[in-house]
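During the no-cost extension, the postdoctoral fellow (Dr. R.K.) reprocessed legacy sequence entries with the updated structure-token encoder. One reprocessed record is reproduced below for audit purposes.
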Amino acid sequence: MPSFADSGGDGYGDFKGITGKLGYLQEMGIGSVWLTPFLSSPKVDNGYDVADYYAIDPAYGTMADFKTFLEEAHRKDIKVIMDLVLNHTSTQCKWFQEAKKSKDNPYRDYYIWKDKPNNWESFFGGPAWELDPVTNQYYYHKFDVTMADLNWSNPKVIVEVQNILKFWLDAGVDGFRLDVINFLNTDGITQDNPVKDGKQQHLYDIDQEGVKNAMRVIKSTVNAYGNRFIVGEIGSDKIEVLKQYQAEDLLDVVFNFNFGSIPSFSAERIFNELQSMEKEMSSYPTLFFGSHDMPRMIDRLAGGDPEKATALAALMLTAKGVPFIYYGEEIGMHNIIAKNFEEIADIQAKTAYRLAVEKGKTPAEALVEANAQNRDKSRSPMQWNAQEFAGFSTAKSWIKINPDYKEVNVEILSKKKNSIFSEYKKLIALRNSEKALQYGQYKKLEYKENRIFFTRSFENEEVTVILNFGTKTTVKLPAGARLLIGNTDLKPNGYIIYKTTRH
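Re-encoded structure tokens follow.
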């Protein structure tokens, strides 16, 4: 949200800015958008620290701006999924402000308090407990100290959550992306986590037994509205963990980090994950290579090569699953790197820097550690054109703009015939026109010599995709096949897509 399009000239993305770009999304063939949090927040963690679940943050505009955006999106047949954080609130939330007043405050049990904390650590580093001097008790925060965890064993919290869901469903949203939803604390604070090789193993503070029941409450509330969609962020890259939360009464889909967050390129690893998802997932997996939490796909997996990034996009948009494109991938946007502490916006990276300094590291060493965890890499403003501030805004942006924006932008790449942008548009148009690429099951899924092959079949049509991450080769099309994209001389990082019809 903060980095897509700014209409107000404050260097921060907003609803009016996105509304002005809906034509761009429609032209690309996008069917739905997932928006990162836009609710009222001090934005210590980019809005994932909600202060008021019923208010639009002024940085993004007004409720009227949101409703105009939603109406325009729906008019263009684009659905809208909103990010909802139900694991914790900002400590500025009125619930927490009340809860900290006294031990017998009606909101006290909305959160988790202890006289003596256990050894659980924050996922951002350091202890997950903070002493509140007013009542001399510790409150639990799985993430930053300004983000207090909700107590899901309190029935009043569940009612509050149901009311929040209904409010936004009544407003017209088409579904939710549920943040770190398997981290909900449903069973209270249990035993200490074990420590292995000096690193805490998060055994008891995530995936608690009551999490699935909490998901069932959420799903049944959303299902009452019909034709709505829930995607869950499950904090794991293990298929065994991910698959248990995808079910008719749980989540429609989960983010498959086993596939999407692989740290470096391996055609065989990608194929193995495709195979694993086909074998293990009860319904459609999700297909993505980028998000606001990981480095840009073109740098992480493609070594900066637009052709290789395009081949990975072809895989994402034609394999079986629900594809998620992270803004800017379609033009090959690259990582930004912080050159000093002042350039860091991400709370996770700032915490890593502070902890490194506390351990005696020099500022230069601390910066290396911070950049290793820095989620700013992929959060730089969308690069629309070569004008000042990349056409994102008329003012300095909230986070640095990649200096390559003069060459890597929508305006320039939309005029180039075989650019990564034109290929994305072709691939999305193909997916939207071929039912086999939307609903088809795998008839074939194979890997050989750094090439991934698959055929998807629906009714009497079959679409075959060959992605070549190996050496140059020639493909012989079967009799009667119609070439959809590519050519039979398959160069490295090339792909070919063809269709056959059974009579």
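The mean pLDDT is 97. Residues 166 and 224 are 9 Å apart (CA to CA). The remaining legacy entries will be reprocessed before the final report is submitted.
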